[in-house]
Amino acid sequence: MDLSNLDLFKAIGRKMGWLTQRENVIAQNIANTDTPGFRALDIAPLTFKDTLSAKLQPTTTSAKHLVSASSGKAGDSKVSAEKKPWEISPSNNGVVVEEQMMKSANTASDYQLMLNLYKKNVTMLRTALGRGGGV
């Protein structure tokens, strides 16, 4: 059974991909802590509404079907400068290591949550199929 065809696993994979991208951006921010004039970056948040709209688009199988008014799909995350950094250093650098470390810890925690959710759902499917739910 291919789990990537199930909407729940697609949503979990999408969130994990977004968290991976965010961790990469945070790592770049920390790496540029001493770069003069560098501004901290972050990626656009992945909202629940975006996840639903990407999954629940109606499909037209006939020319007589109505076309969806909202045909916009949630695309890849966009990287943008952070709106309000905590402070600006004398070298005009907007990266605050403490803030970036907090974001990194939150991202890691969210990633672990998605991983646990994935594992629990695989275990539930195995149990439902009679293949044993033990990990």
Automatic annotation (TrEMBL):
Keywords: Bacterial flagellum, Cell projection, Cilium, Flagellum
GO terms for cellular component: bacterial-type flagellum basal body, rod
Claim: Ubl conjugation is one of the keywords in the record: no
Domain Flagellar basal body rod protein N-terminal: 22-39
Compartment(s) of residence: Bacterial flagellum basal body
Subunit structure: The basal body constitutes a major portion of the flagellar organelle and consists of a number of rings mounted on a central rod.
Recorded family membership: Belongs to the flagella basal body rod proteins family.
Gene it is expressed from: flgB
GO biological process: bacterial-type flagellum-dependent cell motility
Pfam families for this protein: Flg_bb_rod
Job description of the protein: Structural component of flagellum, the bacterial motility apparatus. Part of the rod structure of flagellar basal body.
Zinc as UniProt keyword: no
Protein origin, superkingdom: Bacteria
Region (Disordered): 66-91
Compositionally skewed regions (Basic and acidic residues) per UniProt: 75-86
Main location (coarse class): other
UniProt-recorded name of the protein: Flagellar basal body rod protein FlgB
